[in-house]
Design goal:
509 residues; mainly beta; Methylamine Dehydrogenase, Chain H; 2 domains; five-stranded antiparallel beta sheet
Amino acid sequence: MSRPWIRGFLLSPVLVFLFGTTLHAQTDFVYTNDDVAGANTVSGFAVKKENGALTAVPGSPFLTGGTGMGGGLLGVNRATTCAATGRIYVSNAGSNDVSGFTVDPSTGSLVFLNRTSLSLSGPSQGGIALACTPDGRFLMAADSSSREITVLSIDGDNGSLKSIGGLTAGGTPEGIKISPDGRFLAVALVNMNAVAMFSIATDGTLAQVRDSPFSPPPDSAGSLVGVDINCASSLLFAGSSGASTTVNVFDIATEGALTPAVVPFMPGVGTNSSVVLLSPNEQLLFASNQLSNSVTVISFPAGSLSLVAGSPFAAPGSTFPSGMAVDQAGNFLYVADGSMGANASIHGYSVASTGVLLPVPGSPFLTNQPGRTNQPGRLLSLTAFPGKTCNQPPDCSKAIASPSTAWPPNHQMVSIGVSGVTDPDGDPVTITPTGVWQDEPVQPGNATLSPLAVSADRDGAGDGRVYTIQFTASDGRGGTCSGAVKVCVPHDQGSDPCVDQGPLNNSLQ
């Protein structure tokens, strides 16, 4: 039975809500591990989408509860984003622990979670590198002084950390990276000029890959320092300390072994290019040059490396440009300055489609930490939020209700499942109903609705009742999709299919 005027009145507020949600822009943020030699802090900045300029988020800087060291190895990842859970973690080299925060996605303000000790013998003079597994279940912490890698489990509810084991890195770890498929941990061993590879079990346990660590070709210059891995988890990129920009590319075998993919790329520009970072579209590779205060940009469109015109791009006034981060769209690049004390700042660049870098308005941006002048340290690490993600969301386009017909109309509740939702990465998908609608008026005793069950009822004078179940599907790694399925309660068995008159009543409002 059709009631057009009622449908229109009840549906309009819902349409306003849906359009409001669709048009809401995602805000990107950048967070630094200030590594203050004293009470350590995290500085947070919101990214202005129009031009990449940074503005401090409310409450910044945020105390970590631990102490920093004020320096150390340049390629150490002292801050990391867990994209699947909306949290960031930073290491405190002075107090040998890790601090966690949740991020307010609208303002960028941080809420302190807790601080977890790594039970190491003493302060980490080199720094503690962090990497989060793609599913947000584990955090790896590699200490450059003790040469230990600690595995921390992450509580899914509150984000707290718990040490569950670890092993010796086999050398001095500097930059680390977990492959986007979650299977391997890559660790640059700076003292050995090699990359160690470890497999990651489902319980977080690490095991060294056979024949690890892996060395670059003999004609490669410098020592391997920073690493990054492409979304396909098939290529590893390694930056090197040395006289000029040197980038090594390795193939990653199924079992995690590394073999050189191309000859070392040495364009003869930049000095001490320790840290490397792939752009979100993986067409560009950035390398920060610590001893020439610049950034080299390398094009990588089809398996071959080439220098972007204008490289290296200067970071005027910088001291040891080190850690880098890029916004999720890949429009802006941010580089930790490396300056000491009150001059600690971030250099920002807009990234053209060609890879050319231009300073964003206002760059560099001071972190403005109170008292930092008397507590020297080097700003060497930062992370972007939500940051780059390789996860593909679920596909809701082929969802169907199971069953799609409820018969007979005996007023009994019929449980409805949703099938046909798939995930390109093979992740398990959780489906959550967000609304259950029907196209006929509700009369006492005529219809009852619950999240994923409907009452086998219809209007005897109508054309069959149609339930529309709206839902969201989540892969547990930050990927979601939305969809709707329909269930028909026909007027008579064997009659024509239900005629959907449009949503009228929503049981979840």
